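stage 2 :: seqdesign
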């Protein structure tokens, strides 16, 4: 590892925004779809369609905002100002989505959505237009925050193993945010004696709205960016060119799609699975909390294994483990809290591995791109990575919810045993296959620790050559050399 290691407190401060990010992401996948399908009166197919449209809108904005993150710096660097700009988008949209007491409020803003929907032959309800509109606004802020934050993390250190540590800390924060937000309905119930789905969702919304600006402020003020290579002029064909030519990137994107869609399916179906298949509705949130705690505990193990076996091989191990342990739930007796407790604990250990290891590997792939092109296009690469993750999330809800309608599943209950069995097989079968496929994709990934070290040496040699050619006049090259060789700058990039 490099001698210029980042202080752990600085890594912790950098990771803080991941807490409200995950506190927002979890309810969107697990609680908001059943909430809008139940208490807000939308059909399962309508909810699935809206989430699919919103996610695919987000997919198309990812490359654009990734390029903007790379190409439009400020006096504070390339990433932090975009994170700050994302804050009001996320706060307002989270408030409106989690506390829709009056969906008619602010509907004048979304007449264009209703008109477009009608033009396509639909007759949307007010609630449907409201949900889709605020989801689109939320995902604009989400993209600005996640792409900039992941790119910033990749650029904090050039070291192969320290990148895993940084992404591991970020994963810690993500999981911490998830199980913290899960405790809110339980706390609310203990205080009020009884809680509804609406009040539980509202509590999650307030948690996000309050915590988001605090954590972002601490991160952007206490963690400076490393100096980076000055970006070249933007080519609109850049994202497509990268996607079509970089084989390493292609493998990571395929793996990320497979890794992302697996927990997205289990997450989107979890409430139905726990309450109706297993008969444990009252304990559903607590058992989901157990799952994330297990993921939290498992992260250090995966970090340690990555330092000995390599990041790509460790990812494969985790996916094989998850693909084997998840289907065991088929053999569990219903209405047994402790059996599902054991199952969620066992399977949950694999949860955190895929996300942070793939993002650590992607940082190494950007080194390869830097050597080949002389540019630092981290934002673009992480935008593409974010895009595949979102496609997976979109497909998880956009396919599984209409599929539930197709098998005759009723979200309010009263389903036949045959229907519940079909739900169970969807819940475990598809995710297990996707995880095993991801393991196969990453098993022999060619960019390992040795290769990444050689990349760093060649980048340093190239930058030194530039310095030798322009020892006085080329200040930008000097800054780039400092950034390549060492740690975080003490002052923000001007």
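stage 2 :: out
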């Amino acid at each position: 590892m490099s001698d210029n290691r980042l202080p752990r407190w600085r890594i912790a401060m950098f990771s803080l925004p991941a807490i409200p990010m995950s506190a927002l992401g979890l309810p969107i996948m697990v609680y908001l779809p059943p909430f809008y399908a139940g208490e807000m009166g939308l059909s399962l197919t309508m909810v699935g369609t809206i989430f699919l449209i919103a996610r695919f809108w987000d997919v198309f904005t990812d490359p654009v905002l990734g390029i903007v993150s790379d190409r439009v710096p400020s006096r504070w660097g390339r990433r932090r100002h975009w994170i700050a700009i994302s804050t009001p988008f996320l706060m307002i949209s989270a408030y409106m989505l989690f506390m829709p007491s009056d969906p008619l409020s602010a509907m004048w803003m979304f007449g264009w959505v209703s008109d477009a929907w009608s033009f396509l032959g639909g007759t949307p309800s007010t609630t449907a237009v409201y949900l889709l509109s605020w989801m689109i606004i939320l995902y604009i802020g989400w993209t600005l925050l996640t792409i900039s934050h992941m790119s910033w993390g990749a650029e904090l250190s050039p070291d192969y193993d320290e990148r895993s540590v940084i992404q591991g800390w970020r994963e810690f924060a993500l999981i911490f945010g998830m199980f913290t937000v899960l405790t809110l309905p339980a706390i609310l119930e203990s205080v009020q004696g009884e809680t509804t789905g609406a009040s539980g969702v509202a509590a999650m919304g307030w948690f996000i709205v309050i915590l988001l600006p605090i954590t972002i402020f601490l991160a952007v003020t206490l963690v400076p960016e490393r100096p980076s290579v000055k970006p070249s002029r933007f080519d609109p064909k850049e994202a497509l060119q990268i996607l079509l030519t970089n084989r390493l990137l292609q493998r990571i994107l395929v793996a990320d799609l497979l890794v992302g869609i697996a927990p997205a399916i289990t997450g989107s179906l979890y409430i139905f699975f726990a309450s109706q298949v297993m008969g444990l509705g009252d304990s559903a949130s607590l058992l989901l909390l157990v799952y994330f705690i297990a993921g939290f505990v498992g992260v250090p193990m995966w970090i340690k294994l990555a330092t000995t076996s390599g990041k790509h091989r460790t990812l494969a191990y985790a996916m094989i483990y998850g693909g084997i342990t998840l289907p065991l739930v088929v053999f569990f007796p219903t209405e047994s809290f402790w059996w599902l407790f054991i199952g969620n604990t066992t399977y949950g250990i694999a949860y955190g591995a895929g996300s942070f290891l793939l993002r650590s590997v992607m940082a190494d792939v950007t080194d390869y791109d830097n050597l080949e092109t002389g540019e630092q296009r981290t934002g673009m690469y992480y935008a593409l990575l974010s895009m595949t993750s979102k496609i997976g999330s979109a497909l998880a809800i956009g396919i599984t919810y209409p599929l539930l309608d197709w098998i005759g599943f009723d979200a309010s209950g009263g389903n036949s045993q045959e229907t519940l069995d079909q739900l169970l097989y969807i819940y475990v079968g598809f995710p297990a296959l996707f995880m095993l496929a991801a393991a196969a994709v990453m098993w022999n990934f060619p960019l390992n620790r040795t290769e990444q070290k050689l990349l760093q040496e060649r980048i340093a040699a190239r930058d030194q050559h530039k310095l030798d050619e322009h020892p006085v006049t080329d200040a930008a090259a000097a800054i780039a050399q400092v950034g390549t060789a060492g740690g975080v700058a003490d002052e923000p990039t001007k």
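stage 3 :: structure notes
- Residues 8-485 form a domain with the Growth Hormone; Chain: A; fold (CATH 1.20.1250.20).
- The two ends are 28 Å apart (CA to CA).
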